Amino acid sequence: MKAQKLIIGIGNRFRGDDALGCLLADALRARVPQDVEVIEHNGEPASLIDCWQERQSVILIDAVSSGAEAGTIHAIDLQARGLPEQFRSFSTHAFGIAEAVELARVLNKLPARIGFYGIEGSCFSAATELSPVLQSAARILQQRILDDL
């Protein structure tokens, strides 16, 4: 039986700040209650929809590049609205996330609760570490998610 709550960390571990979702998934996995599953995903739309089927609550986490100040935390209730246009154009995965959410909305396959947390990144080049500003923001977001659970 699948856990009713799912956290999906989206990213690429080898592209600097783009690793945010993967690294937060690692950090959260050990700290969430037993009724919460945490996975890592590359952002491909069709398989994202498959991931959240039969779930009541989903949190998506990704690094974004919308022009806001690096380290800015964005929180969006995707049940209420889609991703803003600037995320569709500039996030390294938002096209896939936006496409998956809107397709699921049309097909009536969105979970009852689905939220998106994005942190504004600053470095998406080949690297295996988050920038210092993202490391700090990731700690804040991790605690926020744990408090919300």
Q: What portion of the residues fall into strands of 2 or more residues?
A: 15-25%
The H-and-E topology, N to C, reads as: EHEHEEHHEH
Structurally, the number of domains stands at 1
> What share of the residues lie within helices?
25-40%
Number of helices: 5
pLDDT average, as an integer? 89
CATH class: Alpha Beta
Strand order of the largest sheet: 2-1-3-5-4
Give the overall silhouette: globular
The computed structural class is alpha/beta
CATH topology: Rossmann fold
The assigned CATH architecture is 3-Layer(aba) Sandwich
CATH H-level superfamily: HybD-like
Between the first and last Cα atoms, what is the distance in angstroms?
Answer: 20 Å
* Most strands sheet: 5 strands, mixed
pLDDT < 50 stretches:
none
Which value, in Å, is the CA radius of gyration?
Answer: 14 Å
Topology, number of strands: 5
Question: How would you portray this structure in words?
Answer:
The mean pLDDT is 89. With 149 residues, the chain is an alpha/beta fold. Strands 2-1-3-5-4 form a 5-stranded mixed β-sheet, with helices on one face. The chain has a single domain, classed as Rossmann fold, CATH 3.40.50.1450. It has helices at 20-29, 45-52, 85-90, 94-106, 132-148, and strands at residues 5-10, 36-41, 57-64, 73-77, 113-120.
